[in-house]
Write a structure and sequence with these properties.
Elements lengths: L24 E3 L10 H12 L14 H4 L10 H4 L5 E8 L6 E11 L5 E14 L2 E5 L1 H5 L4 E5 L2 E5 L7 H18 L7 E5 L3 H8 L1 E4 L11 E4 L3 E4 L9 H8 L11 H12 L6 H14 L5 H5 L5 H32 L5 H12 L6 H19 L1
Parallel strand pairs: 1-2, 7-8, 8-11
Antiparallel strand pairs: 2-3, 3-4, 4-5, 4-9, 6-7, 10-11
Helix pairs in contact: 5-7, 7-8, 8-11, 9-11, 9-13, 11-12, 11-13
């Protein structure tokens, strides 16, 4: 049996952006570089944003103690804003709590030839003078410095003063960490840092995004996100301490192959262990089969191309990934599961691995997708 399947937990899928260099850095109308320390802070920020990979490239313009924490991005906003959008430094003001420190705000936005501006984020840094030079610091440790911490198993929870804490859910999450690790045969993470917030807005703000573009409409505004290899941000108090889909992502990191994971399998495995968008695997399979019957001409390639509305496409995508994981595990057990989790990032990588693990019937993946969804749903229904 699968370990501690907590299927009724919501997934907020991360935006699938690849990091790239910041193409340009400009100054907003309120930035006056004729006076200190604005001039020096602008130079520091500009040097930082011109790095090949801001947030990952070692540099003397970022605080050294934050670069040595073992995460693969010392700037937590690197996961969100360094995706090829121009940067505009719009504000540099004293913190007032400590006049030697300054808040730096940067707007990321594109504009087209018609003058339509498409902003994605308003980023916050802190700048302070250390040993005669200005260096940058992340907002996360500063904005959460008075938060309370609770250690439960391998998870350290961080919560704002006065916020509630559900120790039962926390214990469940701690057991889930060890259970998933044992199930796939990998060492459990030494420590996970888990930040509890009341909304996605607050979740983004504590890492240094005063504003970040989100999906709009019903069901949005809450979710969770992983950062690097040890940090979880939870912006959904309904699931709070046990947002197990995101926990699964970090526990499964040691199974990743040398060329990187395939995104269908990454989301599928987390869904198989921890559910997705508030649904269990059985519920997702029911939705997939109903969708297939209603749309007989729809092919998996269409889903892969992102032609469906965000929420519907997300559920079908994650459910399909979990379907693949389930089929592989039922046929080959832990060894086959580990082989699948280590697959490379391209669709060709995945097709080859599925033929090895499931046989030639997966050569026509669209036909397999339809038949396997119905068969697996029947198997699960009989097992209940």
């Amino acid at each position: 049996m699968k370990p501690l399947i907590l299927a009724a937990f919501l997934l907020c899928a991360p935006l699938a952006f690849a990091q790239s260099q910041v193409p340009s850095v400009s100054l907003g109308w309120s930035i006056d570089t004729t006076a200190s320390p604005t001039r020096e802070i602008v130079a520091t920020v500009t040097d930082y944003l011109r790095l090949p990979s801001p947030g990952r490239t070692p540099t003397d313009v970022w605080a050294a103690d934050e670069q040595g924490q073992g995460n693969d991005a010392y700037d937590p906003t690197a996961w969100f804003v360094y995706i090829g959008y121009p940067a505009t430094i719009v504000q540099i003001t004293p913190t007032w709590e400590a006049t030697e420190a300054y808040v730096v705000k940067i707007l990321y936005a594109n504009a087209d030839s018609a003058g339509i501006v498409r902003p994605i984020a308003l980023q916050r840094f802190y700048a302070s003078e250390e040993d005669g030079r200005w260096v940058l610091r992340s907002a996360l440790p500063i904005l959460t410095r008075d938060w309370l911490t609770v250690d439960v198993g391998r998870i350290t929870y961080h919560r704002a003063p006065g916020a509630s804490f559900d120790s039962v859910r926390a214990q469940r999450a701690a057991r889930f960490v060890d259970s998933v690790a044992a199930f796939v045969g990998v060492p459990p993470p030494v420590r996970l840092e888990y930040y509890l917030t009341e909304s996605v807005d607050e979740m983004y703000r504590i890492v240094g995004l005063d504003w970040f573009v989100q999906q709009s409409g019903p069901g949005t505004g809450r979710g969770a996100r992983t950062l690097g290899n040890r940090t979880i941000l939870c912006g959904n108090p309904e699931f709070g301490e046990a947002y197990v889909h995101e926990i699964a992502h970090l526990v499964l990191l040691p199974t990743k192959g040398p060329t990187g994971p395939h995104r269908l399998i990454v989301e599928g495995a987390a869904t198989w262990f921890g559910g997705s968008t508030g649904h269990s695997l059985d519920e997702l399979l029911t939705e997939i089969v109903a969708f297939q019957e209603k749309n007989p001409e729809f092919r998996f390639e269409d889903l892969n191309g992102g032609v469906l509305p965000d929420r519907e496409g997300e559920r079908l995508w994650n459910g399909t990934g979990a379907l693949v994981v389930d089929a592989v595990y039922r046929k080959g057990g832990q060894r086959a599961l580990r082989s699948l989790l280590a697959v490379g990032p391209t669709d060709d990588d995945l097709r080859r691995r599925l033929r090895e693990l499931l046989g030639e019937k997966t050569a026509d993946f669209d036909a397999w997708w339809r038949s396997e969804a119905r068969e697996t749903l029947t198997i699960h229904s009989h097992a209940r």
